[in-house]
């Protein structure tokens, strides 16, 4: 039996002001919470961001108390939630930069040199901050191009034994790239309807956005941090995954 929980009305009214319901269909919805102030240490400088987090739910309701009541038993820490860091006047600025960044536990958190994710994350935030307005979407269900962290560890073992990054995923029974951008695009549309400039080397992201009806006016590429550890991996991304090669290097993992 689900526990029926009663909350302090003040608590619910504080939360209600900052939760937005985004309907995905009759039965499903994305609940977007924010903005929340998030000062970020970006290469030694403090940059102000507004942070939003979202949750997918099999219930569509404006009665957010019902949603809050589900959380304590939903075991959410066992799952990953995605979020977005917004900078400047993202809703109204004429030009805004966006990045859809796929989570990379090894690259973003540990600073692994086997890929260039950590570098891309840092540089994207820096571009957005320098530009004055933009948003970085951190997509938590995209580990290892959608195979998950444990499977990525297995794929790394295969890669250490001569398989390239695409074949390793295929050998484990996955498609090469199973990432889905639909929820992130819905959140983007809730935050901004004007055109965006996409930070990416990956044409699939550009296609996904355009197919979902987003007005993408431009794309900027992100190259750098090539090393002996990720050279082969980056070359594979370009040769086998259709990534676009840059003028200054061959670095690509987005
Ligand atoms: Zn990575």
Automatic annotation (TrEMBL):
Pathway involvement of the protein, from the record: Cofactor biosynthesis; riboflavin biosynthesis; 5-amino-6-(D-ribitylamino)uracil from GTP: step 1/4
Question: Which top-level group of life is the source organism from?
Answer: Bacteria
Catalyses which reaction(s): GTP + 4 H2O = 2,5-diamino-6-hydroxy-4-(5-phosphoribosylamino)-pyrimidine + formate + 2 phosphate + 3 H(+)
What enzyme class is recorded for this protein? hydrolase
Enumerate the SUPFAM superfamilies for this protein: RibA-like (SSF142695)
Could you confirm whether the keyword DNA repair appears in this record?
Answer: no
Annotated GTP cyclohydrolase II domain residues: 79-221
Q: Which cofactor does it need?
A: Zn(2+)
Q: What is its EC number?
A: 3.5.4.25
InterPro entries xrefs: GTP_cyclohydro_II, RibA, RibA-like_sf
What PANTHER family does its record include? 3,4-DIHYDROXY-2-BUTANONE 4-PHOSPHATE SYNTHASE, GTP CYCLOHYDROLASE II-RELATED
Designated name of the protein: GTP cyclohydrolase II
């Amino acid at each position: 039996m689900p526990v029926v929980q009663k909350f302090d009305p003040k608590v619910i009214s504080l939360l209600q002001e900052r939760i937005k319901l985004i309907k995905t269909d009759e039965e499903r919805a994305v609940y977007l919470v924010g903005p929340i102030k998030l000062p970020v240490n970006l290469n030694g400088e403090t940059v102000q961001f507004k942070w939003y987090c979202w949750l997918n739910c099999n219930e569509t309701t404006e009665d957010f108390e019902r949603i809050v009541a589900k959380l304590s038993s939903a075991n959410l820490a066992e799952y990953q939630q995605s979020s977005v860091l917004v900078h400047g006047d993202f809703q109204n600025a004429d030009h805004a930069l966006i990045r859809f960044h796929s989570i990379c536990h090894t690259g973003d958190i540990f600073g692994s040199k086997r890929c260039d994710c950590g570098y891309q994350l840092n540089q994207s935030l820096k571009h957005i901050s320098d530009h004055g307005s933009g948003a970085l979407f951190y997509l938590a269900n995209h580990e290892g191009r959608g195979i998950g962290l444990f499977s990525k560890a297995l794929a790394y073992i295969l890669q250490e034994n001569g398989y390239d990054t695409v074949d390793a995923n295929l050998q484990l029974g996955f498609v090469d790239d199973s990432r889905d951008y639909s929820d992130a695009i819905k959140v983007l549309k809730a935050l901004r309807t004007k055109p965006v400039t996409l930070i990416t080397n990956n044409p699939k992201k550009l296609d996904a956005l355009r197919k979902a009806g987003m007005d993408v006016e431009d794309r900027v590429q992100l190259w750098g941090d090539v090393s002996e550890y990720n050279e082969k991996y980056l070359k594979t991304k370009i040769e086998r995954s259709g990534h676009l090669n840059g003028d200054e290097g061959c670095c690509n993992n987005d």
